[in-house]
Amino acid sequence: MFSLFAAYAHSTWLVTASFIAGVMNAMAGGGSFVSFPAMLAMGVAPIQANATNTVALWPGQLASVAKLRDDLRKDLLPVVILTSILGGVGGALILLRTRQTTFLHLVPWLLLVATLLFGLSGPVSNHLRQRALARAIAEDREHIPNATPAMLPLFLILLPVCVYIGYFGAGAGFLIMSALALFGVEEMHQLNSLKVLAACLSNLCAVVTFIASGAIIWRYCLVSMIFCGVGGYLGAHYARRINPRVLRLIVVATGCAVAGYFFWKNAQGDPL
Question: Residue 257: how many CB atoms within 10 A of its CB?
Fold first, then answer.
């Protein structure tokens, strides 16, 4: 009786966590830190759980891209698309050749660094924006055009992030948004839409690699996929209604909380 109840509880949590993960990925990122532990709770080995979770989350990311497409910066699409494809394939191949526990111990450090970078990017972007506004006023211009960042440096920064997306991906949205913000992309909805696009494309490449390798547990994947898709669509819809400052605080708070959770679990000698 107890084992039956535990199985029901784990299944219910998988459904709930998948929906929450879809919402989080569309609004702030880090949804895998909810859905990945839920997948592990079903008794799936870490590498297979990560691969299955990646496939399950992908439709939600696609729905979010469709919802946020009007916010995409067209001048940045080539570099984002190229790095996403190369990084997604590379990261997936590295994961499939990694020990089951190695990447779990890297997760809290990667998330913590990403959160700190994103938190710092706000003041830095505001400072740069004020300087640009001062120049515009001095030159008697009516508006400030969006300057296109140098593509090669942006490519070199985004490529390892996209490799990480293919490898594990949780918290990578923070890294993408941080990199773009540090290169002068300051509008929050643009950051969010480009983050979702990069994650979607990188994970698509990882998904193809994982399926070809036979690493997917389909009975859990399909359930999670449906609810992630619903959550991703709803999250993208409401993300545009949230004040950018509030959304930035959600990103930072989520990153700190989840990093702390994984640090604590590692200290206990239990990855989850």
Answer: 13
